[in-house]
Amino acid sequence: MSPDLPLSRRAAAVPPAPSGPWLEGLNPAQRAAVEALEGPVLMLAGAGTGKTRALTARIAHLLAAGRARPNEILAVTFTNKAAREMRDRIGRLLGRAVEGMPWVGTFHAIGVKLLRRHAELAGLKANFTILDTDDQVRLLRQLIQAAGIDEKRWPARQLAHVIDGWKNRAWMPDSVPAAEHGAFDGRAVSLYAAYQARLRDLNAADFGDLLLHCIRIFREHDDVLEQYRRWFRYILVDEYQDTNVAQYVWLRLLADGHRNICCVGDDDQSIYGWRGAEVGNILRFETDFPGATVIRLEQNYRSTPHILAAASALISANQGRLGKTLWTEIGEGEKVRLIGHWDAEEEARWIGEEIEAMARGTRGMDPIRPDGVAILVRASHQMRAFEDRFLTIGLPYRVIGGPRFYERQEIRDALAYLRLVVSPDDDLAFERIVNVPKRGLGDKAVQTIQVAARSNGVSLLEGARIAAETRLIPGRGGQALRELVEAVGRWHRQAVEEPDTHVELAQQILDESGYTAMWQAEKSPDAAGRLENLKELVKALEGFDSLQGFLEHVALVMENEAEGGEEKVTIMTLHAAKGLEFPAVFLPGWEEGLFPSQRSLDEGGLRGLEEERRLAYVGLTRAERVATITFAGNRRVHGQWQSQMPSRFIDELPAEHVEVLTPPGLYGGAYGAAGMGFAASPVLRMGAESALHERAARADVYASPGWRRMQERQVARMGREPAEARGLVIQGTAVPVFAPGARVFHQKFGYGRVTGAEGDKLDVAFEKAGPKKVVARFVTAADGSEDVPF
Ligand code: ATP
Ligand code: MG
């Protein structure tokens, strides 16, 4: 330091930044981002280029250089898990545990901490509760009713969606623009104001409020804002492309003083537009923060060249992107693998076998353990087929970013109905569904039922019968209870007398109870997904002989969750996979309508399509060594079989980086991927012979015995010729086909062997009951295979 400097400057000067392990191995561009300590920094770069790693190193560097204490760094991560990992990494880089980095977390986590400190400025107490979505909707429903609005026409979930959207844009009730005032029949603004007032009375906040209250406090209390500007000396944000307006406003308020803000992101990975994220935030950074250091990274350290090339080519179909070059030093590696399957069950079966093969290290690859494998789905209802398959073969798995299939609210409700029908003594199940859907049976009615049950020493269902018959519960509720009790009795009889009609029965239960209608009446964005899940549930029943068998299976699935410590395959949505990496990634369900999702296309048009394509890019770039794309020719959509068309994204992949796989002889011969029952895609019609999906779907296996067996299995499963099925929607009715000699099971007669067949009748020599003629539909295969033994 120059001796000419005034003493005050010399004393205030910061010592030169030290170097240490956190700088090791960084490339010059990353190093520049780490060492540009003062002022705004933007790292805008493609997937896997080390943005998150550089961000972490930057924090370590700031701490080591003494620029900030751990509690003076505000770092926003995408998930709480990412925050934990970041803290751990910083500790490792610095070679000591980092105590107290309280401000590393998600927007929500940091927002709630700030709000607790200043709750009184938002009219709350420090111990305010945070409402989840269900609470939020319940509260809105009360307000809608109080306002005399017909909740059937104007559902609370829809209002919740509108209000969330406004909160994402940082609009308070008094600042919603006039153009929006027509929402919810012109009443959303006043209901929003009433909702906020009610939340305050309840000493509660919803998720949107966590930032919104902070924003208002910062705007109205300069002293508080100044305090935090001084306090958070450095601000860092990962995945900046997915911030919404409220998050952006919140960040700018905090950063506008010292402008020590470092944001990293990738415009090609912006996938939360549907939740209000504005990719414009990242593109505007240099305007917002003039003089910003902008760093572009181009070397990808994650994926093999084929994976990278495939992902880059795919995303290049999007317009209006910044465009980036990515390269890698990693050697050759596997091409992206592509394979078509008959249906979602086959897809799950094949992927399960691939994962086992990878663990063994076959196929000329080094082994990849199950915990290095991820299955990334577009829609959560796709998970069920994998969960069931993995359970069957004993492959441990975990589901991230959302409840496992059987733990979802609508599935638990539906299961409660099924449980009650199978065992009418299941009081927990009864309690769960007695007023779902609403039957006018509130807490008081339930108490009456409990008393009736207890004083007679019977189950709640029996108690309900007594209460209904003796008219203990008056009015509409009493009538509804009588109907429910009567219906459960009817369903129970059917379950006992005709156990093999369980699939139809389950559908009937959901429909007749009003449960399906309840979700159909919901206009919220997640209602459609819930209905899909219910359809998936009914479909899952097909694999079982009875409701009872199915419920036992589900109990096992639930138990599986309790085990820990094993190496588990990860199943998650593409959205939740952002920022993560896995040696092997499976991307199932690349079919038109599923991926790209029809809803995104309908609601977002080209914008929606481009967001879907970015999602595909995110998916592919999660893979380090092996990326496998799969699609199915047939899928149950809305409960009906449908021929699926391969995703347009498949034909956007560069053929030279893709290897088209043919499934091995699972059924004793070349069974030919997807020639089977695929609807012709536009590409096929245009005669583009080399279209990738067409190669994956080549039909030269039609003549093989394996194909014929497959076809017969499908005839059995779908009740029609698959060839006829192209483009058609077919109701799934099972008419099993049994070969002579097959061992079967009949509910009444027990086990036996098929001796002959005529039409839909079978001659069976039963072990106990002797020879009999029975209807094929009433027997099931008894050799353990799922459907037809051949
Ligand atoms: P995404 O866009 O998917 O979030 P990213 O840009 O944040 O990706 P990182 O997750 O930080 O990328 O890094 C990807 C992988 O590359 C990680 O395994 C990381 O450890 C590794 N990596 C990053 N930088 C380097 C480097 N300079 N040398 C070696 N490996 C690196
Ligand atoms: Mg990252």
What do you see in this structure?
The chain has 790 residues and is an alpha/beta fold. It has 5 domains: 14-113 and 214-299, Rossmann fold; 129-202, Arc Repressor Mutant, subunit A (Orthogonal Bundle); 336-402 and 565-662, 3-Layer(aba) Sandwich (Rossmann fold); 405-556, PCRA, domain 4, CATH 1.10.486.10; 743-781, no CATH class. It contains 32 helices and 22 strands. The strands form 4 sheets. Strands 9, 10, 11, 12, 13, 14, 15, 16 and 17 form a 9-stranded mixed β-sheet that branches. Strands 3-2-6-7-1-8 form a 6-stranded parallel β-sheet, with helices on both faces. A 5-stranded antiparallel β-sheet has the order 21-20-19-18-22, with no helix packed on it. Mean pLDDT is 83; it is low at 665-690, 697-736 and 783-790. Bound molecules: adenosine-5'-triphosphate and magnesium ion (MG). Residues 51-52, 238, 579 line the site of magnesium ion.
